[in-house]
Amino acid sequence: MFNIDQLGEYAKLLAGEQQAGPGTPNNYLRERLDENEEELHQYNTEVLSEKTPCYITPATEWLVDNFYLVEEHIQLARTHFPKSYNKEIPCLITGLYKGLPRIYAITVEYISHVDAQVDEESLRTFFQSYQQVTPLKLGELWAIPIMLRLILIENLRRITVQLRQDKRDRDLANAQMDAVEEVNSTKPSDLVKVISGMSAGELPVSSAYVSEFSKRLSAHNTSLKIVKNWFEQRLQEEGLSGEQLIHMENQYQAADQVSVSHSIKSLRFINSLDWRDFIEQISLVERILRTDPVQLYKDMDFISRDHYRHQVEKLAQQSECTEEEVARQSIDLAGVAMSREAEKRQTHVGYYLIDDGLKELTQRLGIRRSGMAAIRDFFKTYPLTFYTGTILLLALLGTWFFVHQINASALVVTGRTLFVVSLCFFIFLSQFAVFLVNYLSTLFIKPDFLPRLNFSASIPRNCRTIFVVPAMIVNKETVDKLVSDMELHYLSNPDANLSFALLTDFIDSGNEHEAIDNELLEYSRIEIENLNKNIMPGMIRFFTCFTGRVNGIRKRGNGWGMNANAEN
Fold it and tell me: Whole-prediction pTM value?
């Protein structure tokens, strides 16, 4: 057992000793998971199928009561650890864990030194300390919860195997004592034969057997003295002490209970921890990207940040650079753009990871662009030319082949007829070409990712915005419904930099003014004023706009808004 400081020092030592190579197609961990699941299921079934269980250890109670949780994590581990994962993450080439993923070996060492008692502080310290010597890839960091599940399930399987063996030994002790008690109650003179039969076979001298046999024997201090003498003599021959073995059994049961409880609690902890936040805290790539010159990266939502990190991981796989080097190069390019006062978007790291600056970054990393990437670049640069050109090319080639086949055949077709037939065929084929190009575009041309800012906590002042609801005013009931909806919108989003507005107009009419228009207008104004007084006193906003009616008569529209900030 290590404390926090010892865990950190041990992690650094471990990082200096381990040597990793490329991934392997070995599926040992998946196969081992299947074996563990079968072992745990068998033990759970055995315990539940006993009609009159003689003795249930505390560890067994923990395991049976929480078996549903164990099954859940087995399924999660199988789902999140596909067979191809070993090929994507580094594996060790030397040592005890040779051929296994490096992150698995690291996690095993962590679990073994905290006795399966996982907590966020120790976990963060261990992996941060390890990366001070040897950085881990993003794929390895995201595999930490998977490996924790695999190892904790392995730990439960190890304890289960011992519990099954102890159960067999206790069952044997109970069976022998049942036979002894039966003979003692019916024909005590035959006890010697029973003892002789037990001596003929090999008796286990495990702590579980000795503890159970001694417990049953202690209830017959006088009547089974011959059995007690034989049992003590047998232990002496093995060089063992009954009292010592009983004490050891109590210690074993306590240790098994602690290990099982730690494993179960750790499985619960894995489900409760926010792994997205945890991985970002220990990721070196994340730490580098947060030095974005315009300080925009840290304000983005998780999906956008994760997309940037995946792009860094992809570029590192295509080049000979590490993920940290790729991230630094993108930050350097953004810094150079800021120093020369380039366009603002060029000073953001995302411009070089997912936008037009990607070509410059790949050149710096020494990545050779593939033919497919060149086609995508051309399509993004000249989308209309590429789209229409491909359609025309396919239609012209198909028409040329059609005309060629007609001329090669025995059919006699005049020039005018051939032109008309070819034109009809070209029009028909162009429709097919449009369908084909549209289909192929969805396969090879992916939509650009749109990064987003994180406004889950609040909207900053420099990003203030307005929520506008366009609507038609028909009658007073319509106004009441619109005002009620506006109130609900505000109560659901009470942000100082978020405004709400109604952009309204009257229904179509052949006249510029209707008798009910002024009445509805005044009623709407009063309702909005009351709403602002009740929720945001003094924050009423009045907007005017012009909208058109279907008959061509110009009609002035009306707009009312609720605003949490009087300066907007």
Answer: 0.77
Rounded Cα gap, residues 9 and 6, in angstroms: 5
Nearest-CA neighbor of 108 among 60, 66, 158? Answer: 158
Write out the two tokens for 270.
């894995």
The torsion angles phi and psi of 504, rounded to 5 degrees, stand at -120, 165
Q: Are 207 and 249 in contact (CB under 8 A)?
A: yes
Closest CA to 493 of 528, 464, 522: 464
- The structure tokens listed for 373 are 């990437």
Encoded tokens for 403: 């005309």
Half-sphere exposure of 418 (CA within 13 A, CB side): 13
The DSSP output letter for 300 is B
Return the structure tokens found at 70: 């164990």
453 forms beta bridges with 300
CB-CB contact of 47 with 56 (8 Å): yes
Give the contacts of 123 (CB within 8 A, at least 6 positions apart).
110, 144, 278
What is the residue whose two structure tokens read 């196969």? Answer: 31
The residue type found at 146 is I
Residue with tokens 């679990």: 111
* pLDDT tens readout for residues 269-326: 999 999 999 999 999 999 999 999 998 999 999 999 999 999 999 999 888 899 999 9
The edge-to-edge listing of strands for the beta sheet with 498-506 is 465-473, 498-506, 554-562, 540-548
The tens digit of pLDDT for each residue in 495-536 reads: 888 888 888 888 887 787 778 888 888 888 888 888 887 775
C-beta contacts of 221-228 below 8 A and 24+ residues apart: 223/184, 223/188, 224/180, 224/184, 224/191, 226/191, 226/192, 226/195, 227/180, 227/191, 227/195
Q: Which two tokens stand for residue 364?
A: 């710096």
CA 568 to chain centre: 40
Q: CA–CA distance from 174 to each of 225, 231, 339 (Å)?
A: 18, 14, 83
Among candidate residues 216, 158, 134, the one with its CA nearest the CA of residue 39: 158
Tokens representing residue 505 in the block: 């107009």
Q: Please name the residues in contact with 98: beta carbons below 8 A apart, sequence gap of 6 or more.
A: 92
209 contact partners, CB below 8 Å, separation of at least 6: 169, 170, 172, 173, 203
Q: How many CB atoms lie within 10 A of CB 142?
A: 19
Question: What phi and psi, each to the nearest 5 degrees, are found at residue 305?
Answer: -60, -40
